[in-house]
Design goal:
It is built from six helices and seven strands. The protein has about 200 residues and is of the alpha+beta class.
Length: about 200
């Protein structure tokens, strides 16, 4: 993330170390470069921790990461518009417009299995076959920082295989990671499963 990039570029001096790391308590073989790497690793939270913290944040509340305030309502509205545009693009077969919603280096992993393989084959190289529609149902949207947000949900693709007149429905569960780029919020990663989303766990007693 941008904040971490700033940390890694900072100069760390021995005199800046916490009291417990000064000369009297430095490990044998201590040097500035090695200590700097240790400090950076300890200061950088894993993405899983960031997602967990975001999940605990009350919805609609403006969050602060470092000195940057995040208007979560505005970010959610943007994600809503991206979702609606994706549904419209699939229905219209306008896949060119859908590519503009992807960030540079975006990776998308679709659900597997014979049914989904058949759907892909019907597209003849396109993401969806002609006449397909998609209905996306978000179950959870979280803004984690000024740069990252995610959406968890399910979707239903409806299409008619060639040589038949009966529509087929395929359901999946997805997790999308959005990134705030120089051109706005874009889809950066997506992983989908052909399994239905799990039922919410009952609250702990």
């Amino acid at each position: 993330m941008r904040s971490v990039a700033r940390v890694t570029g900072a100069q760390f001096r021995p005199d800046d170390a916490p009291p417990q790391t000064r000369a009297s308590s430095r490990p044998r073989g201590w040097n500035r470069t090695r200590w700097s790497r240790i400090v950076v690793r300890r200061c950088r939270p894993p993405l899983a921790v960031v997602i967990f913290a975001a999940a605990c944040q009350p919805q609609g509340q403006e969050r602060t990461v470092g000195q940057a305030a995040v208007d979560t309502a505005a970010v959610r509205a943007t994600i809503d518009s991206l979702r609606a545009a994706w549904e419209k693009g699939v229905g219209a077969g306008d896949f060119k417009s859908m590519t503009t919603m992807l960030a540079d280096g975006a990776v998308m992993v679709g659900p597997g299995g014979p049914a989904w393989d058949s759907l892909a084959a019907g597209g003849s190289g396109a993401p969806f076959p002609p006449g397909a529609t998609i209905d996306i149902t978000p179950l959870e949207v979280r803004v984690m920082s000024p740069e990252w947000a995610y959406e968890f949900g399910s979707s239903t693709v409806t299409y008619t295989p060639q040589g038949t007149d009966q529509a087929r429905k395929l359901k999946d569960t997805y997790l999308i990671l959005f990134r705030n780029t120089a051109n706005g919020w874009k889809v950066y990663r997506e992983v989908a499963s052909s399994k239905a989303p799990p039922k919410p766990r009952p609250p702990a007693r």
